Amino acid sequence: MENIFKKWMENPISKIVLATNLVFALLFIVSIPSFVREYITQDAVSIGGKKYDLSDVKETSPIAYSKFQSEYKALIKNTLGEFAQDKLFELIAKDKNIKPSEVLTQGFTPREPSEEDIMNVYVSNKDQLGGKSLNETKDKIIGFLKNQQEQEHSRNVYRDIVTKYPVEFLIKEAEAVRVTVEEKNNPSIGPKDAKITIVEFSDFECPFCKRSQDVNQKLREKYKGQIRWVFRDFPLPFHQDAMYAHMAANCTISEGKYWDVFNILFENSGNLAKANVDALIVKAGMPKDKYQACMKNASNLKAEIDADIQDGQKVGVSGTPAFFINGIFISGALPFENFDEIIQKELKQ
């Protein structure tokens, strides 16, 4: 409630924009993810008189081609989504003899928020109100609450619309682009003969990497015994504490403490100063003397991490987190469903 109210206070959204955003969100929920690539060889570039097309990109830079597929699929989906929205509103407007712009709001009359509702919003967002009193902000709070009522009404109306006129995106499925990603004896979870191998390039200091760990854990739980998860170091150069944290974590592998340290470092990713990392390593159960002895071999530790970075860059990794599901590239802290869809398909092969 706090973040929603703050954003609404900073930039109140018009009814039309609200309705449009709502429609797109619901359209995508009921859609089938897929991809059209009918004429990719028609688009080309000529270099020194020699013509190159997207098939050449696919052969020489599979990750760049994979990104192209994802972005193109999203563009096609957005374009068809806009068209579908307009058509749905036209159909309903014709049935009800109203304007398309009235479809989501027809029959809506906001009720006056209760004093209790108003007070709850005020108390929850007091820090964002710049010290203003309830009386000074009451009108804006009422507007916010009525706006929420309208959004809820629009959601209900749209659910009825897609029940009457189902929306399904019929877009050709993309060909999976795979690259070979070596494991090189890096820490892993899961059986070596698992049908699915996921190689993760990540950074203990990266907030997006930390965010992705919840999804990663859910995937390992759902597909326990079917997934082998490999972690490779990719500390980013602008994260000044990341390299030391990765070196420290690698010192715990021989003692079987790596995954305990892995979890505790991500839990503390906003505070990875050397002293704190040292304390966290010992707290995780790593013998202090063995840890200190290992960290004296800083050059060897760094060389191994640099090798991970170089291997990642060779297969197109430029940021974190980056994942390869049986060689299929996924970039960023994406929702569970993005990974789950690929894994399901891989298990069926």
From TrEMBL:
InterPro entries: Thioredoxin-like_fold (IPR012336), Thioredoxin-like_sf (IPR036249), Thioredoxin_domain (IPR013766)
Thioredoxin domain: residues covered: 170-348
Single GO molecular function: oxidoreductase activity
Gene3D superfamilies per UniProt: Glutaredoxin
Key words of the record: Disulfide bond, Membrane, Oxidoreductase, Redox-active center, Signal, Transmembrane, Transmembrane helix
Signal sequence, renumbered to the chain: none
Family of the protein in this entry: Belongs to the thioredoxin family. DsbA subfamily.
TM helices/strands, residue ranges: 16-36
Species classification: Bacteria, Pseudomonadati, Spirochaetota, Spirochaetia, Leptospirales
Stated name of the protein: Thioredoxin-like domain protein
PANTHER family documented for this protein: DISULFIDE BOND FORMATION PROTEIN D, GLUTATHIONE S-TRANSFERASE KAPPA
Species: Leptospira wolbachii serovar Codice str. CDC
Keyword Oxidoreductase: yes
Keyword Signal on entry: yes
Highest taxon in the source lineage: Bacteria
Chain coiled-coil ranges: none
